[in-house]
Amino acid sequence: MSDNFRDAVIVTCMDRRLHQRPDGRNYVAEFALNKWLNAYLITRAGCILDLVHPKETGHYRSLIKDISIPASKGIKELFIIGHENCAAYPNYKLRMDEVDQHVLDVRRAREIIHSEFPKLDIYPHFAELEIGTKDIFIIKAA
Ligand SMILES: [Zn+2]
Predict the structure, then answer these.
(1) What is the mean pLDDT of each run of 10 residues along the chain (142 residues)?
(2) Quick check: pTM over 0.90?
(3) Adjacent-strand bridge partners of 82
(4) What pLDDT was estimated at residue 3?
(5) Domains plus CATH for the chain?
(6) What is the spatial order of strands in the sheet that 121-129 belongs to?
(7) Ligand 1 center to 4 CA (angstroms)
(8) What is the C-alpha to C-alpha distance for residues 101 and 19, in angstroms, rounded to an integer?
């Protein structure tokens, strides 16, 4: 069965709502299983924020260094999963503005990672909150 899984990297946010929950939910793990990924998991505050809007250049290099480890092992696919209502991002008055900015950022991160690792296939995603909830995510390609 494990032969059907593909090696990959997932870069996502450290936000606890995306990962192992007390009630058993785990959105990132479900995503990996649904896509048959045997994934290295890189969790950062703000996902790819340190690539797109680094507060310090060291933050950028730190995330690139993390990606370089699985990339050096011949991993060919990388998935980015940004998410709505991210504490590392500023507060937005309009949900639409927040979603638009995140989608721009995960797409920009794809370009940045590609420039550093041209052999990786990179798939940006964004986890939207189900309307009216604060912790039910729907992960979509961005
Ligand atoms: Zn976050």
Answers:
(1) 87 97 97 97 96 92 97 96 95 92 97 97 97 96 96
(2) yes
(3) 126
(4) 79
(5) 2-141 (3.40.1050)
(6) 37-44, 6-13, 77-83, 121-129, 137-141
(7) 30
(8) 23
